[in-house]
Write a structure and sequence with these properties.
With 193 residues, the protein is mainly beta. 0% of the residues lie in helices and 44% in strands. The strands form four sheets. A six-stranded antiparallel sheet has the order 3-2-5-6-7-8, with no helix packed on it. The protein has a three-stranded mixed sheet with strand order 4-1-9, with no helix packed on it. The chain is globular and about 65 Å long.
């Protein structure tokens, strides 16, 4: 005969809404969490946790006890206008205890009268467009853009992979770099990097 297996879904404890730096709702965005864990030698490591889909800018998650880094990033089409941003989430006894914006080091509170937190995408400090040489001058998608320190902002020659980004369908890219002087190295997919 037939077997029926009912599954009871758990209710989330983190309700989020993704917004632009100006406060507009972002319909589609990338959102994931990594959990901070301490190994036997006392080193804190990040372990992949969950990826979330957004619908009309909203997502929800069920996080266990612990400390998490929440990454929020623009979708492919808006990646030339906004950058990713990281938040720290602390959970205890099934409840979100605190949310902190790691860019500004400020506490994020729930939206008044709701259970949701608003998470802003990053505002870029650098934007640009990658184009084919003349006479074509067409936009080039899928180009990896990586900053390399040439003056201030770190050790000269250091490649800052954590700020690396890719061009979107329109050849546009954006990144939020700390103050400094950099070369931007552009490598087309499959160019042997």
């Amino acid at each position: 005969g037939d077997v029926v297996c009912d599954v009871a879904l758990s209710t989330g404890n983190l309700f989020g809404e993704i917004i632009t730096p100006a406060g507009d709702i972002v319909n589609y965005a990338g959102v994931y969490t990594v959990k901070k864990v301490t190994d036997s030698q006392g080193n804190v490591n990040e372990v992949w946790d969950q990826w979330f889909n957004t619908q009309n800018g909203k997502f929800n998650a069920l996080l266990e006890k612990g400390t998490y880094r929440l990454w929020v990033g623009p979708d492919w089409k808006t990646s030339g206008k906004y950058t990713y941003r990281n938040y720290e989430i602390k959970v205890d006894t099934g409840t979100v205890q605190s949310v902190k914006d790691l860019t500004t080091n400020s506490t994020i509170n729930k939206v008044t009268g709701t259970d949701k937190f608003q998470f802003k995408l990053g505002a870029p400090s650098v934007t640009g467009k990658v184009m084919e040489p003349l006479p074509s001058n067409s936009a080039v998608r899928g180009v990896m853009i990586t900053p390399q320190v040439i003056g201030t902002g770190g050790v000269k020659g250091d490649v800052l992979w954590q700020y690396q980004t890719w061009t979107n369908d329109f050849g546009e890219y954006s990144m939020a770099l700390p103050d400094g002087t950099y070369d931007l190295v552009a490598k087309y997919w499959g160019s042997g990097y």
